[in-house]
C-alpha cells in the first residue's frame, strides 16, 4: 500500500517533457544494450579470425625458410632467417626442435617477458626432400588484439552516449518550441479569462490540437464577453426600472407598443440563446468525453510506466554485474526474457492508448465544431461508442450497434454525434434508471436517399401523459435533480432544422422506448457553412 502511494506520488510529479525524455532514453538505451555487445562480438570474431590466419601464415613461412638451415645444422643462419617473422610485434616465441631426437635447435623468447598474453601456439613440421627433419612452434601474444577490441568498445560506447545526449537536446528544443511555450501561453490566457480580462483576443496560428484548443478558448472568451455585456445592460435596465417604477405604471398604456417591440427582440434573443445552448451542450459533451478518455488512458499508460521502471531496474542490475565481472549466461537469458516480455507489455499498452487517442481526435474535432463532411455512419458511431464506454462501464447497461458498413452521409457528424449522445444519456438517466441490467440498440437501414436510424432500449418506457412533451424546451422529469430539459429539445432541433430529417418516438410501459430518426444521405444547406446552428435565422 505504501509502495502504491509512493509510486502514485512520483507519477504525479512526472511532467510531459520528462516523460518524453525518459521514453527517448529508454528507447535508445535498450537497443544500445543489445547492439553494442553484438557489434563488439562481431568485431572480436573477425579480429580473431584474421589473427588465426596470420598465425597460420607465419608458421608456414617459418617451416619453409628454416628447412635448409635445419638440414645443414646451422643455428646461426636459422636465427637470422627467423628474424623476418620475429619482427612482427605479436610474435612471443619461436622454437625449433629436431626430429626424431626432439632436441632444441633454436629458441627465441626474449619478447615474451614484456607481453601479457593470452598466448596461442601453433606447430608445423619442417620437411626437407620429403623427409620430416624437425618441428617449429610459433607462439603469438594477443596484447595488440585485446587493445584493439578495447578501443572499439570505447568508441561504440562513446558514440551511443553522444547520440543519446544529442537526441535529448534536440527533443527538448522541439518540445520547448512546439509544445511547452504554446501550452504556457494558453495557461496564461486561461488565467486571464479566469480573472475576467476579456478584451484581448486569444490567437495561436496553428492547425494542430493546440490550435483547436486556442480557438475554443477564444470562442469561450467571446461568449463570456457577450454574456457579461448582456448582464451589464440588463442590470442597468433594472436600475432604471426600479427608479422609475411609478412613472412606468402610469405610462403602461403607452409602453404596450414598446413592449411588443421588446417581445420581438426577446424572441430573437431566445433563438440566439437556443443556438448558444446547443453549442454549450456540444462542448459539455466534449468535456465529458475528455474526462472519459483521460480515465481510459490512465490504466495503459500507468502500466507502461510500471513496465518501463521495471526494465530500467533490470538493466541497471545487469550493468552492475557486467562491471563487477559476475555476468553469467543465465543472467543474460533471464534479462532477455524480461526485456522481451516488457516490450510486449509496452507495445500493447501504447497501441491501446494510440487507438483510443486516434478515435478521440476525430470525435473531438467533430464535437467541437459543426463542420460538414462525408463520413461512414458505422465508423462515426463506433468511435463515439468507444468514448462513451468509460461512462457506460460504470453502469450495468450495454450499448450495441447493428449498422451496415456501406452507409455514407454528407452531413454534420458532430451534430449527429450529439444526437446519439443525448439519446444514450436519456436512456441511462430516465429509461434504465434503478435497473440492475439494461440494453440499448442502435440500428440503421438505407431507404433510397434516406437512412432510417432506430434507437431502442428495454427500460421502463415513457408515460403516455408526457410522451408528447418530451421535445419541449426545459421539460424534464428530473427538474431540480440535475436535469435541464434541453437534451431532447436540442436533439429535435438538430434533426429537423439542421440535418433535414424527422424524429418519432413510441413507447410501451415497462417494455422500453423507440426513437425512429429519418435522415437524408445529403444534408440540406450550404456545404461551406461553419456552424449551421449559429447561422440560423
UniProtKB/TrEMBL annotation:
CDD domains associated with the record: HAMP, HisKA
Residue ranges constituting the HAMP domain according to the UniProt record: 177-229
The protein's Enzyme Commission number: 2.7.13.3
Name of the top EC class for this enzyme: transferase
One cellular component term from this protein's GO annotations in UniProt: membrane
Catalytic reaction annotation: ATP + protein L-histidine = ADP + protein N-phospho-L-histidine
Domain of life: Bacteria
Chain coiled-coil ranges: 214-283
SMART domains: HAMP (SM00304), HATPase_c (SM00387)
Keyword terms: Coiled coil, Kinase, Membrane, Phosphoprotein, Transferase, Transmembrane, Transmembrane helix
Domain Histidine kinase, residue spans: 292-523
Subcellular location: Membrane
Record protein name field: histidine kinase
Organism (species): Undibacterium jejuense
Amino acid at each position: 500500500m505504501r509502495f502504491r502511494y509512493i509510486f502514485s506520488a512520483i507519477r504525479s510529479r512526472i511532467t510531459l517533457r520528462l516523460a518524453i525524455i525518459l521514453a527517448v532514453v529508454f528507447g535508445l538505451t535498450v537497443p544500445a544494450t543489445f547492439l553494442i555487445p553484438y557489434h563488439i562480438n562481431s568485431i572480436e570474431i573477425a579480429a580473431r579470425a584474421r589473427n588465426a590466419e596470420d598465425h597460420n601464415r607465419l608458421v608456414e613461412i617459418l617451416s619453409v625458410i628454416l628447412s635448409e638451415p635445419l638440414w645443414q645444422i646451422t643455428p646461426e643462419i636459422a636465427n637470422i632467417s627467423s628474424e623476418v617473422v620475429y619482427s612482427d610485434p605479436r610474435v612471443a616465441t619461436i622454437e625449433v626442435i629436431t626430429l626424431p631426437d626432439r632436441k632444441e635447435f633454436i629458441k627465441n623468447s626474449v619478447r615474451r617477458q614484456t607481453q601479457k598474453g593470452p598466448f596461442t601456439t601453433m606447430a608445423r613440421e619442417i620437411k626437407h626432400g620429403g623427409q620430416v627433419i624437425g618441428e617449429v612452434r610459433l607462439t603469438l601474444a594477443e596484447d595488440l588484439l585485446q587493445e584493439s577490441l578495447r578501443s572499439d568498445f570505447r568508441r561504440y560506447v562513446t558514440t551511443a552516449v553522444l547520440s543519446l545526449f544529442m537526441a535529448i537536446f534536440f527533443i527538448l528544443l522541439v518540445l520547448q518550441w512546439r509544445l511547452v511555450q504554446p501550452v504556457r501561453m494558453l495557461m496564461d490566457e486561461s488565467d486571464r479569462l479566469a480573472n475576467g480580462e476579456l478584451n484581448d483576443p486569444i490567437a495561436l496560428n496553428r492547425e494542430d490540437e493546440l490550435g483547436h484548443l486556442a480557438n475554443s478558448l477564444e470562442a469561450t472568451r467571446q461568449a463570456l464577453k457577450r454574456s457579461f455585456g448582456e448582464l451589464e445592460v440588463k442590470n442597468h435596465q433594472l436600475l432604471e426600472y426600479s427608479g422609475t417604477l411609478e412613472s412606468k405604471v402610469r405610462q403602461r398604456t403607452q409602453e404596450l407598443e414598446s413592449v411588443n417591440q421588446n417581445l420581438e427582440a426577446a424572441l430573437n434573443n431566445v433563438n440566439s440563446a437556443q443556438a448558444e445552448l446547443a453549442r454549450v451542450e456540444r462542448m459539455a459533451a466534449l468535456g465529458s468525453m475528455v474526462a472519459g478518455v483521460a480515465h481510459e488512458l490512465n490504466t495503459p499508460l500507468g502500466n507502461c510506466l510500471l513496465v518501463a521502471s521495471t526494465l530500467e531496474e533490470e538493466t541497471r542490475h545487469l550493468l552492475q554485474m557486467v562491471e563487477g565481472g559476475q555476468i553469467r549466461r543465465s543472467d543474460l537469458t533471464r534479462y532477455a526474457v524480461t526485456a522481451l516480455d516488457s516490450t510486449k507489455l509496452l507495445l500493447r499498452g501504447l497501441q491501446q492508448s494510440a487507438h483510443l487517442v486516434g478515435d478521440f481526435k476525430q470525435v473531438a474535432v467533430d464535437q467541437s465544431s459543426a463542420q460538414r463532411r462525408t463520413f461512414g455512419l458505422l465508423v462515426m458511431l463506433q468511435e463515439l461508442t468507444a468514448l462513451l464506454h468509460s461512462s457506460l462501464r460504470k453502469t450495468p447497461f450495454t450499448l450495441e450497434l447493428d449498422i451496415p458498413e456501406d452507409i455514407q452521409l454528407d452531413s454534420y457528424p458532430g451534430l449527429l454525434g450529439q444526437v446519439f449522445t443525448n439519446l444514450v444519456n436519456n436512456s441511462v438517466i430516465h429509461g434504465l434508471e434503478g435497473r440492475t441490467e439494461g440494453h440499448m440498440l442502435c440500428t440503421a437501414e438505407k431507404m433510397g436517399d434516406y437512412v432510417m436510424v432506430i434507437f431502442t432500449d428495454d427500460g421502463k418506457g415513457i408515460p403516455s401523459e408526457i410522451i408528447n412533451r418530451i421535445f419541449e424546451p426545459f421539460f424534464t422529469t428530473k427538474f431540480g435533480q440535475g436535469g435541464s430539459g434541453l437534451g431532447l429539445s436540442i436533439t429535435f432541433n438538430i434533426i429537423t432544422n439542421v440535418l433535414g430529417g424527422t424524429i418519432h418516438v413510441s413507447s410501451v410501459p415497462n417494455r422500453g422506448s423507440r426513437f425512429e430518426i429519418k435522415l437524408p444521405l445529403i444534408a440540406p444547406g450550404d456545404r461551406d457553412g461553419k456552424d449551421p446552428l449559429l447561422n440560423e435565422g
